[in-house]
């Protein structure tokens, strides 16, 4: 069989079985054979891995490319214990331009590619103080670097939704322009449950996936995850909903955490959480 690419002398995670490693053959961008002594007919490109580890592409599921490389622009924190990062970032977002965001995110994205990331989902803020500039930059970046990485923007509001005039219009505008993932940050909204309800309504209307910043903090009496699971069931969005942060879950007793895990599995909701040992 003619291959487009053969990577020789590769080391795999499960072990090659031999000291010399294995060959990996690729046709039309897909691995078609793994073995020893694969014949590279048809002018295939040959790459010698030199016994180095070869793995599937890495997946970065939660990133904020539009806010990358801005620490030198933000005012310093009042002290090391102050959690005022939201305010310090919001204060400079009006200075962002499409070209500025594109340049910063390109620098970071190229480092991701060089370090093996092939799939990346990034949250893109469209709050009124930045508008659609982040969306425009990262949508262009996704197309420009499609040859190297699957970059998936999630359009969302960081600083409030139901309590911020004009904010939802930016989300809708990005969905109209082709955004395939929608999210939000209910903890920064005066009516978090209503924000979650709107996210699901827009996801169904535009056939978009969902990725929400959810349940950050340390209290457990006011978690929003139950509403998310119920809405996922209601509109049949299992396998299309993800939540990030979820640090409240680390404060649950083991039995309640196990019950939450079962509920997430039943609903088909993916979750990242900070679980203390």
Describe it.
- The chain is α/β, with parallel strands linked by helices and 277 residues long.
- It folds into 2 domains: 5-48, no CATH class; 58-214, TIM Barrel (Alpha-Beta Barrel).
- Helix content is 31%, strand content 23%.
- The chain has a 7-stranded parallel β-sheet with strand order 5-6-7-8-9-10-11. Strands 3-2-1-4 form a 4-stranded mixed β-sheet, with no helix packed on it.
- α2 crosses α3 (133-144) and α5 (192-206) runs parallel beside α6.
- The longest helix is centred in the middle third of the chain and has 17 residues, at 98-114.
- The radius of gyration is 22 Å and the shape is globular.
- The termini are far apart.
- The mean pLDDT is 91.
At the fourth level of CATH, the homologous superfamily of the largest domain is Metal-dependent hydrolases
**SSE order:** EEEEEHHEHEHEHEHEHE
Q: In this structure, how is the largest beta sheet organized?
A: 7 strands, parallel
Taken as a percent bin, the fraction of beta residues is 15-25%
Oligomer: single chain
Question: Termini separation (Å)?
Answer: 51 Å
The CATH architecture assignment of the largest domain turns out to be Alpha-Beta Barrel
Query: Strand order of the main beta sheet, please?
Result: 5-6-7-8-9-10-11
Mass-distribution shape: globular
**Radius of gyration (Å):** 22 Å
CATH top level of the largest domain is: Alpha Beta
Q: Unreliable segments (pLDDT under 50, ≥5 consecutive)?
A: none
Number of domains: 2
How many helices?
Answer: 7
């Amino acid at each position: 069989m003619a291959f487009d690419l053969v990577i020789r002398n590769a080391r795999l995670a499960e072990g090659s079985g031999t000291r010399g490693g294995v060959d990996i053959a690729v046709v039309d961008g897909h691995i078609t054979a793994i073995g020893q002594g694969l014949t590279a007919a048809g002018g295939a490109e040959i790459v010698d891995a030199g016994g180095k580890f070869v793995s599937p592409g890495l997946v970065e599921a939660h990133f904020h490319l539009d806010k990358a490389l801005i620490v030198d622009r933000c005012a310093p924190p009042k002290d090391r214990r102050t959690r005022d990062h939201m305010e310090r970032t919001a204060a400079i977002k009006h200075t962002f331009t499409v070209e500025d965001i594109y340049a910063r995110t390109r620098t970071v994205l190229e480092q991701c590619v060089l370090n093996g990331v092939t799939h990346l989902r990034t949250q893109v803020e469209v709050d009124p103080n930045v508008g659609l500039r982040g969306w425009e930059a990262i949508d262009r970046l996704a197309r420009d670097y499609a040859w190297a990485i699957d970059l998936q923007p999630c359009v969302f509001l960081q600083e409030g939704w139901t309590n911020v005039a004009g904010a939802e219009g930016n989300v809708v505008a990005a969905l109209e322009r082709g955004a395939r993932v929608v999210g939000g940050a209910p903890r920064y909204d005066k009516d978090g449950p209503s924000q979650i309800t709107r996210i699901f309504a827009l996801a169904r209307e535009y056939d978009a996936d969902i990725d929400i910043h959810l349940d950050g903090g340390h209290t457990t009496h006011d978690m929003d995850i139950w509403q998310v699971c119920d809405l996922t069931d209601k509109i049949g969005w299992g396998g299309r909903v993800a939540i990030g942060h979820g640090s409240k879950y680390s404060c649950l007793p083991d039995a309640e955490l196990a019950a939450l895990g079962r509920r997430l599995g039943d609903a088909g909701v993916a979750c990242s959480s900070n679980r203390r040992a």
